[in-house]
Each structure stands twice: as structure tokens, then as C-alpha cells.
Amino acid sequence: MTDFIPTTDLSDAQPQAQVAAPVLRDFGGRTRFQGAAVTLRISENNPLVRQTLQTPGAGRVLVVDGGGSLNCALLGGNLGVFGVENGWEGVIIHGCVRDTAELRELDLGIRALAAHPRRSGKLEEGERDVPVTFAGVTIRPGDHVVADEDGWLVLGAESP
User: Fold this and answer.
1) Which residue ranges are tagged as binding site for a divalent metal cation?
2) Which residues are annotated as a binding site for substrate?
3) Which domain holds residue 89?
């Protein structure tokens, strides 16, 4: 893993970095995380999140475009445990999470819009490894995502 460089330093040194709007909250036990993006586009159904977190993360970050839905949670404690067990660095969700007390105890970076007690649907639909856009940034599979106490940003796949 590359040494961690804070988002403030990256933003100053790399003006091409896409800095995300500060609309996501921190829910994970790890505040600082980084890695290559794996992307999903889903709508109020989380089987693709489960399937992805059950595969080796190899230090990557799962980026989920849930359409900004505030109707249900796309990640909870059980799926968070899969992320830790399989070596994921973090999960960024344009949607909601639940089981927030459990998520806070996990060694996993987690950003999401809000907490919601309702679970998602279980239809296996959505897209994987597609560009996703939310919070004012576009994330492509393989882009380098960096998150810390000051926010999160996206660098091209060739960046550290």
C-alpha cells in the first residue's frame, strides 16, 4: 500500500484531482482510507454490494451509486464485516447505511449520505464497473480514491 497522503495535500499538489462535495457522512471505524475504485450503480437493492464485498478487496474501495436514495440502507453491519474479512479499504455510498454502531466498530472506511433503519430490496439488478457520478465527481473503475477527516477526492487510475 502506498503511504497515505492527506486530501488537503493532494488537492494542493494535484489541481486535476476531483474533490467531492461534502455531502457524505463518516460511518466507519477507519477515517483515512484509499485505494482503486470498484464501482456499482444500483437502485434500492443491495445483492451486488454483498456479492462484491464477498470477493477479495485487495486494498480497493467500493464506490456505490445508489441514486442518492434515502428510502433504505444499502450497507449494514453484516456486509461491513464481509468488507473487513475480504480486505476492502472502504465503501463510499451515494445512499444510506444502517447498523451504524456496528459499522463504527469495523476497521473499514465508510461514507454515506445518512443512516436509515430499513433494509434494501434483494433483487439482483444493477451495474458493475461503470463510471458513476455523484457529489460533483465522476468515479471510473480503477480511479484512485482517497478519504480522510477533510473529505474525499478522486484521482485518475495512474495516480498514487
Assistant:
1) 99
2) 76-79, 98
3) 24-155
| CA–CA separation, 92 and 9 (whole Å) | 21
Show binding-site residues: 76-79, 98-99
Please name the residue that has the C-alpha cell 451504524.
Answer: 100
Determine, yes or no, domain membership for 118. yes
CATH number at residue 68: 3.50.30.40
Tens-place pLDDT, residues 46-68: 999 999 999 999 999 999 999 99
pLDDT, greater one: 3 or 86: 86
The alpha carbon dihedral of 33, 36, 69, 137 has a sign of positive
Domain contains 3: no
pLDDT at 44: 96
Does some domain include residue 5? no
Say whether pTM exceeds 0.70.
yes
Distance CA 43, CA 56 (A): 24
